[in-house]
Amino acid sequence: METDNVRSRPSAVRWITDPLAVPVDELTGPKRLAALVARNLYWGRTHGWANLLEEHDWNLGVRIPRDLRKWNWRRRFGVEPGTARPVLLVGAQRSGTNMVTYALAMAPEFEVFNEGDRRAFANYRLRDRDHIAELARRSRHRFVLFKPLPDSHSTVQLLEELDTPTPPRALWVYRGVRGRVRSAVAKFGDSNLRVLRSRTADPGFRHWQLGGLSHESAALLDRFDPSELTPADGAALFWLIRNRLVFELGLHERDDVLLVSYDRFVASPEPPMRRICSFLDFPFDPSLVAHVGPRRPAPAEASGISEPILELCDELNDRLDRSLR
Fold first, then answer.
1. At residue 48, does pLDDT exceed 90?
2. Is residue 78 over pLDDT 60?
3. Which positions ≥6 away from 159 have C-beta within 8 Å?
4. How confident is the model at residue 292 (pLDDT cuts 50, 70, 90)?
5. By three-state DSSP, how is residue 89 classified?
6. Which secondary structure element, helix H or strand E, spans residue 268, and what is its range?
7. Which of 257, 211, 216 is nearest to 238 (CA)?
């Protein structure tokens, strides 16, 4: 019988009927492939096929012209290998990181390794630092962007220990907890909650969602009984412990890290994109944000998050916004 433990192995039937319950990052080989196919079919049916193509960068109408521009830029202006600047795009999943990645990928000066790119990632985890440094050193682009979201807790080590001639920089993208929770539950179901329940059931449990967990963040989690929480509560607590890393790691005080608010980006994309370009010493071009169309303001309701958890998240969100200013 399947339990709430994230390590449980659903049957093949469950992969089809309830693909979000499958702990994909715990699977390997054909089982992992089957689970990923089931998930993507589900996402295509429920979220729309156009959305799926955009998130995975499978839209050939976008990729082919973009890749041709990059090839032509390398041919005409390509920099000497060893001079590209690595850029780390970090934060919590479902926080608008795809939108920022897409924007920078439109510039031919950027080579992009998204989280599903096997040249730089294995099961969405960044490969060893020597390998990543070599990818950056070989590039003939001005910038090499990596999106190691599950490794966001290692941002300081990556900034200080990545052996590249040009020092890396990092963009930490965050989103308001309400929007992030709605998106995460719709996309991944109760994944965050299952990890919290596994942590409670097994003190030795390890998972990337708990990576870099400080004593203070662990104490916050221990204030809540996972058996009494909703999937929205679990997604909110994940948002809390991951974005607390900004202050626990001192990222808000570093000159090589820039905080980026997704909510401000979608409300008025040009000013945040200009800040990113200035931070990277890269000229702004309107084409970088041409894909960001007008959007309705996100609903203000709490999306099922319990009040004590919501208060903690709102306090942290205010602190992030103050650091951004």
1. no
2. yes
3. 88, 167, 168, 169, 170, 254, 256, 257
4. confident
5. strand
6. none
7. 211
Written as six digits, the tokens of 272 are 């945040």
Q: How many CB atoms lie within 10 A of CB 91?
A: 28
Q: Within 10 Å of residue 42's Cβ, how many Cβ atoms?
A: 18
DSSP symbol at 203: T
Using CB atoms within 10 Å of the CB of residue 161, give its burial: 0 to 12 exposed, 13 to 18 middle, 19+ buried. exposed
What is the rounded CA–CA span in Å between residue 222 and residue 232?
A: 17
| Total Cβ atoms within 10 A of residue 291 | 13
Residue located via tokens 């980026």: 260
The domains of the chain, with CATH numbers, are 12-53 (no CATH), 57-174+255-289 (3.40.50.300), 177-245+299-324 (no CATH)
Cβ atoms of 189 and 21 closer than 8 Å: yes
**H-state helical runs in the chain:** 12-17, 29-47, 49-55, 60-77, 97-105, 129-138, 155-161, 177-188, 191-201, 215-222, 231-243, 245-248, 262-267, 270-280, 307-324
Rg (CA), the chain: 20
Instruction: Provide the residue type at 297 as one letter.
Output: P
d(CA 87, CA 257): 10
Give the predicted TM-score (pTM) of the model.
0.87
Distance of CA 168 to the CA centre of its chain: 18
Q: What is the rounded end-to-end Cα distance, in angstroms, of the chain?
A: 51
Mean predicted confidence (pLDDT) in 164-182:
96
Residue whose token pair is 């001639």: 165
From the list 230, 183, 238, 189, the residue with the least C-alpha distance to 210 is 238
Residues facing residue 174 across a β-bridge: 261
Joined together, the tokens standing for residue 9 give 């192995």
Q: What is the mean pLDDT of residues 102-121?
A: 93
Q: How many angstroms separate the CA atoms of 34 and 179, rounded?
A: 30
Q: For residue 145, what are the β-bridge partners?
A: 87, 112
